[in-house]
Specification:
The protein is mainly α and 116 residues long. It has one domain. 58% of the residues lie in helices and 0% in strands. It has 4 helices and no strands. The longest helix is centred in the first third of the chain and has 27 residues. It is elongated and about 50 Å long.
Length: 116
């Protein structure tokens, strides 16, 4: 299997696919952290708020790791993140690509019917 190191010239089709995959995942991780943060106001106790805040940091951290890979590939990471921060409700799909299926006003009803 062919591998590439930082600074190696990537075949153009490989680079395009790699950037597509990594930007989708990085943007989704960052936006996932934003979605988790939205639910802090529903935490019934400080303990749950702490757990949600920790999860938020974890998700944004995943995005940060991926953005660190993307920057040397020529992606303007700061512009992508700023766009998501400034447009959390409706980011432009031409600028960022995210999974946005987890938006909920209140997650509590989702768990009321769960059973082991």
């Amino acid at each position: 299997m062919k591998t590439y190191d930082l600074g190696d010239q990537l075949p153009e089709d490989y680079k395009k696919c790699l950037i597509d995959l990594l930007t989708f995942q990085a943007d989704s991780e960052f936006a996932g952290g934003q979605r988790v943060q939205e639910n802090l106001k529903y935490a019934p106790r400080p303990e749950e708020a702490y757990r949600l805040a920790k999860k938020c940091m974890e998700e944004i951290g995943h995005g940060w790791y991926l953005y660190a890979i993307l920057e040397p590939l020529g992606i303007d990471v700061n512009a992508r993140v700023q766009h998501m921060v400034q447009n959390p409700e409706n980011p432009d799909p031409k600028k960022v690509r995210i999974i946005n299926g987890f938006r909920r006003e209140n997650w509590a009803p989702m768990f009321e019917r769960w059973a082991d």
